[in-house]
Design goal:
This protein is an alpha/beta fold. Helices cover 41% and strands 13% of the residues. It comes from Algoriphagus taiwanensis.
Length: 468
């Protein structure tokens, strides 16, 4: 039996690869799945309940990188960001060069990486720095551990579920040295311009032809035939009718009125939208007299509701439904429960529209042909953070030439735009399905899980004969 090892370096890969149909599809194809991870056992048990299959599990250890490796990695990333800014003429890409509030040692490391990165002007020089990084990694403790572990696991293919985790790059290098074919998936629609492709694999799984072209644009050294368009399993759930509850059942559970039209405000993280609580206040205030509408609030899963508390107290009609996630010490340790998957499906199915600052939820709603509304106004003239910077982010280029979402350009327009989305949905975001097709490229003939399983069948068969 062929064996595929899923390298899951953090909680990001759980929903797409442990809760989706990928495991079941592979099992039906006679492929054994191994999981190399640092997840808690609760996640593995939840996955087993969904797929009816418990993969062989291996513990993943991760050794910290030394200062030289970190400087090399960060200087290459900084150089790539500068290179991408020149290629796209979009300076907002530099917003991805962010490290929170680092200590003195980290600050010095960052400054040195910036100096080296700024000096690395040509693309050939960037590739040279990255080549030196891969060589340096081969002398690391992480590499030695990974090589030994892979000799124990002995998979036919190693698949890393998340392309941007530095800790997984040594494992990928070790696999390639051992002649094991390697694969990674691009996790999100905004990842490629961010210069955080932390590893080089033999194959790359992407969402769409658009993303494949993006990858060629940012990483021209990667052969086109090694980039496979398979979609992403996170959107497969919207095709599963068994996840949809009746409107009455969903309403009864969360204290909603089934006779009203539901409006979802989907929160953003504090970095993307520091004034998110003010937008929730504006919407709640604007809809006070709309007796046939009910406002639902769901915050971003990796944050609490502290900054929204006063707004919810002032407007008690807001129905707050918290995401079904387990919280960790940092975002890498957060993960969703399976219940959150069905919860998102039902929100998109039953709500009339979703309102937020540039969230992918507009794509989720498009699956059910529901319009999304993006807020596009600031609260104070000249404020440091401005919503206009958000919509200049490179991934919003996917909307060019399309009426993809409805825009709310002032507080005064909130009511009228929401009313249009509710009462005349065909007049708002008329090209929402085209936008969805461009970004996600869903197929009427197969799910992403099926396409991924089909690819792995081919690659494991190839690996058992020869791999070039």
């Amino acid at each position: 039996m062929s064996k595929i090892c899923f390298l899951i370096p953090d909680g990001v890969g759980i929903r797409n690869y442990l809760y989706s149909g990928v495991l079941s599809e592979l099992r039906q194809e006679g492929i054994e799945v191994q999981i190399w991870h640092s997840l808690c056992e609760e996640v593995i048990s939840l996955s087993e309940k969904i797929s009816g299959y418990k993969p062989q599990s291996f513990s993943l250890s991760n050794y910290p990188e030394d200062a030289i490796t970190q400087i090399m990695r960060e200087s290459a990333s900084y150089a790539r960001l500068l290179h991408n800014v020149r290629k796209t003429d979009n300076e907002t890409l530099m917003a991805n060069w962010s490290f929170g509030n680092p200590g003195l040692g980290k600050k010095l490391l960052i400054k040195l990486a910036e100096w080296i990165g700024a000096s690395t002007r040509s693309y050939e020089s960037i590739l040279s720095v990255e080549s030196l990084l891969w060589k340096k990694l081969k002398s690391s403790q992480n590499y030695k551990y990974s090589r030994k572990k892979l000799q124990e696991i002995r998979p036919d293919v190693l698949f890393c579920t998340h392309q941007r985790m530095p800790g997984a790059s040594a494992a990928i290098l070790a696999a390639r040295e051992l002649g094991i074919p390697t694969v990674t998936a691009i996790f999100s629609w905004d990842n490629l311009p961010k210069a955080r492709l932390a590893m080089r694999t033999d194959y790359y799984l992407v969402w769409s032809d658009y993303m494949k072209e993006e990858m060629h644009f940012y990483y021209p050294e990667i052969p086109q035939e090694r980039i496979l368009v398979v979609g992403t399993p996170q959107f497969d759930f919207y095709h599963d009718a068994t996840l949809v509850q009746s409107r009455e059942e969903f309403a009864a559970r969360f204290g909603l009125d089934p006779s009203k039209k539901w409006i979802l405000f989907s929160g953003d993280d504090v970095k993307t939208s520091p004034n998110d609580h003010l937008y929730l206040r504006d919407i709640a205030e604007s809809l006070q007299d709309q007796d046939d509408l009910q406002l639902i609030f769901r915050q971003v899963p990796v944050e609490g509701i502290e900054r929204y508390a006063q707004v919810m107290e002032a407007y008690p009609k807001i129905i707050h439904i918290s995401p079904f996630w387990k919280k960790g010490n940092n975002w890498q340790q957060f993960f969703p429960f399976p219940e959150d998957v069905s919860h998102l499906v039902n929100l998109a199915f039953h709500c009339a529209t979703v309102v937020n600052i540039g969230s992918t939820m507009a794509l989720d709603f498009s699956f059910f042909d529901k319009p999304g509304l993006f807020l596009r106004y600031d609260h104070q003239p000249g404020q440091a953070w401005t919503v206009n910077d958000v919509y200049r982010f490179q991934h919003f280029k996917t909307m060019e030439g399309l009426d993809a979402v409805g825009w709310i350009d002032s507080k005064e327009k909130i009511t009228s735009q929401i009313r249009s989305a509710v009462d005349h949905p065909s007049t708002i975001a008329k090209d929402r399905r085209q936008w969805l097709d461009r970004v996600v490229q869903p197929s009427p003939d197969s799910t992403s899980s099926q396409r991924i399983a089909s690819f792995f069948c081919k690659i494991t068969s190839l690996a058992q004969t020869q791999f070039s």
